[in-house]
Design goal:
449 residues, mainly beta, 2 domains, six-stranded antiparallel β-sheet, 28 strands, 4% helix, globular, Homogentis_dOase, tyrosine catabolism
């Protein structure tokens, strides 16, 4: 599987490379040569700097881009609060606590499709930890939309980077820096502050979002693995410059700021960037290109070998967020219980299923578009039927996960659940624990002597 065989064919061109310095111009000569902010940029454009990190961040962490646009992004009316009757991007104002911290194992039935709302109005905060105001932690969202965003509307989040995991449908995303087509089995990252508009060329969409309030995603270190495998840098795709010329129409700019929605008006398109260069841009990645590794003798390594992207805390090796996948793969371990072992983890694990059946949960309760949360030190592992099957299976080489893709948002933080995620969505499985592990039986036998 060198790449996913998509039903919907690609229609845009991209630049390849993770954290590569890219430059792109929709009109030849729009990029200044040898300078970032000339007195008069080419073609009467405005130079604008987009900073994703502090100016003085270490060079290897620094993420900035220069945009050359028809009008500056600052040219809009004051933002005003905008309420949404459908989305829940923040905690309930009346809640005494930001999140419900729960040690129980939680699992959700598939979240409903919703044909009546667009991208922004479909966002529902399910779980999270930390605070976007303090730029700490993360939020986990579910989205389910059935309509294009208004043709004169754009959105951005000031709270963090959106890692979008599409489960159903197709996303056509027009960003300030160019266009991205995102299909199931692809992920997309839209960094904090970048403005974009979402249309749905194949009808309703549904999926998951990890919003990173703290830092940015990087590729995990490979250590003794060497220089290749897992997600290779060349397989990440960034957009090429694409612009609209409109300085007379009324546009609405929506902002998610400290979890709340705000709206401003402007009389020009936000998508007027004719050229750009830098390190701060949206990108996408085909999960089918993930080069999986594993044991070829006995036992199996920790699931960290399935990490696609990570966002490290200030303690090396401990992540604010990891994005981990469980793709189709061969299992060959001798005298080995091949599914994940039973475990209690200092990390929190929020799992979702894009399609197929996850090989560690074959009992039927973990379904595509559903989710589970195993919080800090909450015990979990294979359900009873999976344990029975794996304990008695013939240990020949076998390929698991064909046609399946499960993923995990993992965090060192204690992840709480929102009022919407716990109650209002009405998707929490009350019998999850009993269904999964209630049928486990003791097999212990004392020695005869």
């Amino acid at each position: 599987m060198p790449s996913t065989q998509f039903v919907i064919k690609e229609k845009y061109r991209y630049q390849n490379g993770f954290n590569s310095y890219h430059e792109s111009e929709a009109i030849e000569g729009a990029l200044p040569i040898g300078t970032n902010s000339p007195q008069k940029p080419p073609y009467g454009l405005y130079a604008e700097k987009l900073s994703g990190t502090a100016f003085t961040a270490p060079r290897h962490e620094n993420q900035q881009s220069w945009l050359y646009r028809i009008l500056p992004a600052s040219n809009h009316s004051p933002f005003e609060p905008r309420e949404s009757s459908s989305s829940k991007t923040d905690q309930e104002p009346s809640a005494q606590e930001k999140f419900f911290q729960i040690p129980n194992q939680l699992r959700w039935d598939p979240f409903d499709m919703d044909d009546t709302v667009d991208w922004v109005n479909s966002l529902h905060l399910v779980a999270g930890a930390g605070d976007p105001v303090m730029k700490t932690g993360l939020g986990v969202f579910i989205f389910a939309a059935g309509k294009d965003m208004d043709s004169h509307e754009a959105f951005y989040s000031a709270d963090g980077d959106f890692l979008i995991v599409l489960q159903h449908g197709v996303l056509d995303i027009q960003t300030e820096l160019g266009r991205l087509l995102v299909r199931p089995n692809e992920i997309c990252v839209i960094p904090r502050g970048i403005r974009y508009r979402v249309t749905l060329p194949s009808g309703p969409v549904r999926g998951y979002i990890l919003e990173l309030y703290q830092g940015h995603f990087t590729l995990p270190e490979l250590g003794p693995i060497g220089s290749n495998c897992l997600a290779n840098a060349r397989d990440f795709q960034a957009p090429t410059a694409f612009f609209d010329e409109d300085t007379s129409s009324s546009w609405t700019l929506l902002s998610k700021f400290a979890g709340r929605l705000f709206a401003a008006k402007q009389n020009h398109t936000p998508f007027d960037v004719v050229a750009w260069h830098g390190l701060y841009y949206p990108y996408k990645y085909d999960l089918g290109r993930f080069n999986t590794i594993g044991s070829i003798s006995f036992d199996h390594p920790d699931p960290s070998i399935f990490t696609v992207l990570t966002a490290q805390s200030d303690h090396p090796g401990t992540a604010v967020a990891d994005f981990v996948i469980f793709p189709p793969r061969w299992l060959v371990g001798e005298d080995t219980f091949r599914p994940p072992w039973y475990h209690r983890n200092t990390m929190s694990e929020f799992m979702g299923l894009i399609g197929g059946q996850y090989d560690a949960k074959e009992g039927g309760g973990f379904q595509p578009a559903g989710a589970s949360l195993h919080n800090v030190m909450s015990a979990h592992g294979p359900d009873a039927s999976t344990h029975e099957k794996a304990s008695n299976a013939e240990l020949k080489p076998v390929k698991v996960g064909e046609g399946s893709m499960a993923f995990m948002f993992e965090s060192a933080l204690m992840v709480g659940v929102t009022e919407w995620g716990l109650k209002q969505c009405a998707k929490v499985q009350a019998d999850y624990s009993e269904h999964s592990w209630g049928a486990l039986k003791p097999h212990f036998k004392r020695p005869s002597n």
